[in-house]
Amino acid sequence: MPLGWKEExxxxxxxxxxxxxxxxxxxxxxxxxxxxxxxxQFHLISELMDDVQQVRVRSGQIHAQRPTxxxxxxxxxxxxxxxxxGASAFAQWMKERMSHTNAALLQYxxxxxxxxxxxxxxxxxxxxxxxxxxxxxxxxxxxxxxxVLGVDDTWExxxxxxxxxxxxxxxxINLFDFKRRGLL
Length: 184
Description:
Blueprint: H1 12-21, E1 23-26, E2 38-47, E3 55-64, E4 79-81, H2 85-97, E5 111-122, H3 126-140, E6 145-151, H4 155-180
Helix pairs in contact: 1-4
């Protein structure tokens, strides 16, 4: 069973809560490449709901495939490989709630995959663990590293929110690249 997979689907309230509380503490210096695959290293920090002195740190890779030319149905081609059922609930939530506000933004048919996910449980306070992870990421100098503060039970939704933020921040660059090459 993949790490983070759950039997039950996420409720609308849990998705909304995850979206509202997720915070990107350190974003990558680079954006999603227009004509190639981009791999971001993520560190997702979440406090356990039943113990304030335990913090889970998940690390792994998010691979963003290159965007493709505009598609007529903006949400039909969203793919989240390795994310479990939470991703399909999130995609359905997006399709129902955000079709008018972000349609132009997501008409690329992005495909995302998470991999190499590891997790560790740290017995310390959330601020101390967060500071430690941020210091490690800054010391690494990796321009594709991200640190995300999220909700433990819906951590994949938090990771998907980070991914959507990267789409939003990459959109203008990708659009410019497509136009420059005469593809739009």
